[in-house]
Amino acid sequence: MLKVIDLDKSYNRQKQSLKAVSFTAKPGEVTAIIGPSGAGKTTILRSVNQLIKDDAGQILLDDEDIRQANKSDLRRIRHHIGMIFQNYNLIGPLTALENVLHGRLGAKSTFAGMLGLYSATEKNEAAKLLQDVGLADFALQRCDQLSGGQQQRVGIARALMQHPKMILCDEPIASLDPKSTKLVMDILRELAQSKQLIILINLHQLDIAQTYADHIVGINQGTIVFEGPERALTPEKLQAIYRQPETKAVTADAN
Ligand SMILES: Nc1ncnc2c1ncn2[C@@H]1O[C@H](COP(=O)(O)OP(=O)(O)OP(=O)(O)O)[C@@H](O)[C@H]1O
């Protein structure tokens, strides 16, 4: 279970980007973070695996506070957190299989990783994962020759190669067409259930969150304004989530 408690983050003195952010994400569930542009969705995801340093709060993954971890603990914890990105972050000239094997890098010595020393078991596992995401026939194809949807599925297989407890997905479908979006979201939802993973996903598309998420966290201007199941998202709650900051009215009838 992931528990984020009272998380604060300011990038600069003018503005607090996260204000006492608290929510939970459970194994076996897709948890979607929704909210308008600039609300703080990416900042939450980056804080959760400590890619950025936040200011205060707790981030408990199975009761271990990621914020308090020393360097070697953080390396160990991060190894069990897969990441999936909007732009896939694959190595284009390498094959799908090689990219998936890179998911093991965190578990290897730098030397073995640099030399690309993977065991037969690891290669078999990578091939099986590609099969699971429907890409068995593309294992030896360069990733820069794959479609966006195929690349994102390689990204999912790479994350699974880490044997993760949790997968963080930052706008994973923002660049995909509706068919690829459905494929990727179906896979993520199935994985959450079958492998009892925590899947935490930032989404711009409300309809996708409503279709696929078991649990929704709504954020507006750095503050959590909703947490609950999709069925609890009333029009009022949606208004609170997507409310735009008030701007000073321009008075037309100044005379
Ligand atoms: N590196 C940074 N330096 C300063 N301010 C930042 C930085 N990154 C984000 N911010 C600010 O923090 C706030 C939250 O940004 P964040 O990117 O987390 O929002 P978001 O909800 O992910 O937005 P989007 O949906 O557009 O990706 C915004 O006001 C943004 O301008």
UniProtKB/TrEMBL annotation:
Q: What is this protein called?
A: Phosphonate ABC transporter ATP-binding protein
PANTHER family in UniProt = AMINO ACID IMPORT ATP-BINDING PROTEIN, PHOSPHONATES IMPORT ATP-BINDING PROTEIN PHNC
Q: Where is the ABC transporter domain?
A: 2-246
Q: Which GO terms describe its molecular function?
A: ATP binding
**InterPro entries hit by this protein:** AAA+_ATPase, ABC_transporter-like_ATP-bd, ABC_transporter-like_CS, ABC_transpr_PhnC, MetN_ABC_transporter-like, P-loop_NTPase
Q: Name one Pfam family in it.
A: ABC_tran
The record, for NCBIfam families, names: ABC_phnC
Q: Which UniProt keywords apply?
A: ATP-binding, Cell membrane, Membrane, Nucleotide-binding, Phosphonate transport, Translocase, Transport
Which Gene3D superfamilies would you find in this protein's record?
P-loop containing nucleotide triphosphate hydrolases (3.40.50.300)
Does the keyword Cell membrane belong to this entry?
yes
